[in-house]
Amino acid sequence: MSTLNTIQEEIYKAIKQMGEKTSFTEFHIAKKIRENAKLDGKKKAGIALADLMLVIECLGNEQNYYSIHINSVNECLIKKEDKVVELPLEAKQRRQKSEKSMLIITNGDISNANKYAEKAPKSGKKQQKRNERKKMSIYEDYND
């Protein structure tokens, strides 16, 4: 697992946290990643197929076999299998083309979330907003 980058490590942790589930989508994994990394944005973001395939390969080395299935809307479904099942080349190319227009969680998102978590104020005090409204009177000091 030492060859994985930041986002791939987060994907690995998320799949491990899924536990005994036999099938789940990439959006379940993305939700776990957002929870673990405390990401606020990118609620509808997916995961890059290349990152997901590398993590699935690492899990296969540990005798945990998963396969990726891509449906007609190019969403990834991950299933636990007894043996390695390869993704068809046509589906892989179709998914990679559609990723150009998709919102994807990246390494930068994870590192930025960690960076901002470290800089967060410790006191928890919020700046008070102005709660008093001042009215202006247009009739004062007006002489005809």
Shape type: elongated
Outline the low-pLDDT stretches.
Answer: none
The description of the largest β-sheet is: 3 strands, antiparallel
Helix content: 40-55%
**Whole-number average pLDDT?**
82
Listing every helix as H and every strand as E from the N terminus to the C terminus, the arrangement reads: HEHHEEHH
Oligomeric state: single chain
SS summary, helix count: 5
Radius of gyration: 24 Å
Through-space gap between termini: 84 Å
Order of strands in the sheet with the most strands?
1-3-2
Tell me what you see in this structure:
It is a single chain. The protein has about 140 residues and is mainly alpha-helical. About 40% of the residues lie in helices and about 10% in strands. The longest helix has 13 residues. The protein is elongated and about 85 Å long. The mean pLDDT is about 80.
Summarize, please.
With 144 residues, this protein is mainly alpha-helical. The protein is 42% helix and 9% strand.
Topology:
Layout lengths: L5 H12 L5 E3 H12 L11 H13 L4 E5 L5 E5 L8 H10 L8 H13 L25
Antiparallel strand pairs: 1-3, 2-3
From the structure above, extract its key features:
mainly alpha, 5 helices, 144 residues, elongated, three-stranded antiparallel β-sheet
